[in-house]
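Entry for the shared binder. Reason: the reviewer on the internal report wants the predicted structure included alongside the sequence.
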Amino acid sequence: MRAIGMTRGQLGRLLLGEALMTGICGIMLSLLSGFCIGWTFTGWTRAWMMFGGLPISLSIPWLTLLKGICFAFILCVLMAALPIIWLVHKQDENGGLTVI
């Protein structure tokens, strides 16, 4: 992207946007698959266990989920921030600090 004229600042914003989108999509996919897997295994225990297995009521621990979502989102942003900061504040070939 730098070769076709994108500034370091623009590239940093692009990479941060990609990291945020990756984090959001990962969180949404994890929630969806977790709900499906939990519901499926609850149904399996009811079908295969003697005395009916687990109750088939949907109980979602929202506070625990919110903590996990926040942790995943913050971790995603932090892991992307270090290379982005390095890229944006990288020294050019002359030794001067370029912040664009």
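Summary line for the report: Residues 27-88 form one domain.
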